[in-house]
Amino acid sequence: MDLPCPCGTGRAYATCCHPLHRGDVADDAAALMRSRYSAYVLGLDGYLLDSWHPDTRPAVVALEAGVRWLGLEVKRHEAEGPDRAVVAFVARYRVGGGRAVRHRETSRFRRVDGRWFYLDGEVDIG
């Protein structure tokens, strides 16, 4: 039996985010965002860099030790043309034995040569 995908679709990882982690192209920005969440859960820093737009990509992604990801909720996915999209989401996590934290973000995505990339995001800390 295959494990459920960390992104919360209810689908098996093997048929949900894993193909994207192997290099398949995301159908839309929401699928890419979900695959990036799963990459954080699974510690796939290489995938996070590869799916980051070259104009805003950092040199490294520092995954924090002791983070336990608790869930993802996609609040909104809007296409802003054929090659631009916005995805608003809430990702819950806990560091060590601390309290759960809600990371609220509205992310911008761009499609280049048929492939979606994370461009940047605005975090709602309020």
Q: Can you put this structure into words, describing what you see?
A:
With 126 residues, the protein is an alpha+beta fold. It has one domain (13-124): Nuclear Transport Factor 2, Chain: A (Roll). It contains three helices and four strands; from the N terminus they run H-H-H-E-E-E-E. The chain has helices spanning 18-21, 29-42, 45-50, and strands spanning 67-79, 84-95, 100-112, 115-124. Strands 1-2-3-4 form a four-stranded antiparallel beta sheet, with helices on one face. A hairpin with a 4-residue loop joins strand 2 (84-95) and strand 3 (100-112). It is globular, with a radius of gyration of 14 Å. The model has no long low-confidence stretch (mean pLDDT 95).
Q: What's the CATH architecture?
A: Roll
Report the end-to-end length measured between terminal Cα atoms.
41 Å
- Count of all domains: 1
What is the percent of helical residues?
10-25%
Q: Total strand count, please?
A: 4
Largest sheet: 4 strands, antiparallel
The stretches of 5 or more residues where confidence is low (pLDDT under 50) are: none
CATH fold name, please? Answer: Nuclear Transport Factor 2, Chain: A
Question: What is the H/E order?
Answer: HHHEEEE
Order of strands across the main sheet:
1-2-3-4
Q: Indicate the overall shape.
A: globular
Q: Which structural class best describes the helix and strand composition?
A: alpha+beta
- Mean pLDDT across residues: 95
Count the DSSP helices: 3
Give the radius of gyration. Answer: 14 Å
Q: CATH class, anyone?
A: Alpha Beta
Kindly estimate the percentage of residues that lie in beta strands according to DSSP.
35-45%
